[in-house]
């Protein structure tokens, strides 16, 4: 009988733990993301759809601005997960590549800019602790991680362009390379 009650207690404990996590999110990350979304939409409304579409068109013209500059600025200014939303201004063809680039960048910048992805900062701290035990400078590692991340995220985004082209050809799908912003 003890085994059954222990299983039932463990099963309920799982949901109680999930509830505590949800309440923690409701008082921490969800309001931040919600307010960032409101701010971003307010800026878009203030600037105007046409100017945002113009910025998107300019950003999507070459891979350097698409997968190096725009992801860095988006992640730095908006943090994870809000930085992903900047992809909405890009043409449909480039959205898979944008996601590949920005998703990686939100991870490779934690050592220098912990505000970008605070929920995964503990991973960086674990690595940094090992580096500190070796007597090495963690900022040197953080800068190298950031620089290698920028290059690899750019390459990942650009390679995804080729993957998208291959899949579109294989599936007979045509994705627009023009910005179509509807608000």
UniProtKB/TrEMBL annotation:
InterPro entries membership: PTS_IID_sorb
Give the record's GO CC terms.
membrane
* E.C. number(s) listed in UniProt: 2.7.1.69
**One GO process term, biological-process aspect:** phosphoenolpyruvate-dependent sugar phosphotransferase system
Keyword Transmembrane on entry: yes
| Bilayer-crossing regions | 22-47, 67-87, 142-168
Q: Which GO terms describe its molecular function?
A: transferase activity
A Pfam family recorded for this sequence: EII-GUT
Keywords of the record, alphabetical order, are:
Membrane, Transferase, Transmembrane, Transmembrane helix
What NCBIfam families does the record tag this protein with? EII-GUT (TIGR00821)
Q: What is this protein called?
A: PTS system, glucitol/sorbitol-specific EIIC component
User: Gene name?
Assistant: pts38C
């Amino acid at each position: 009988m003890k085994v059954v009650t222990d299983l039932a207690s463990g099963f309920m404990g799982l949901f109680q733990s999930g509830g505590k996590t949800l309440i923690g999110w409701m008082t921490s990350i969800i309001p931040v993301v919600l307010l960032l979304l409101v701010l971003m939409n307010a800026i878009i409304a203030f600037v105007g759809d046409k100017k945002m579409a113009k910025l998107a068109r300019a950003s999507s013209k070459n891979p350097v601005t698409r997968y190096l500059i725009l992801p860095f600025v988006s992640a730095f200014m908006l943090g994870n997960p809000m930085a992903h939303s900047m992809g909405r201004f890009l043409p449909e063809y480039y959205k898979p590549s944008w996601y590949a680039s920005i998703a990686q960048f939100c991870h490779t910048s934690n050592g220098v800019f912990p505000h970008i992805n605070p929920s995964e900062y503990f991973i960086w701290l674990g690595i940094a602790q090992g580096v500190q035990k070796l007597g090495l400078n963690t900022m040197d590692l953080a800068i190298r991680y950031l620089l290698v991340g920028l290059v690899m995220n750019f390459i990942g985004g650009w390679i995804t362009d080729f993957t998208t082209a291959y899949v579109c050809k294989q599936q007979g799908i045509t994705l627009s390379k023009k910005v179509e912003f509807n608000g």
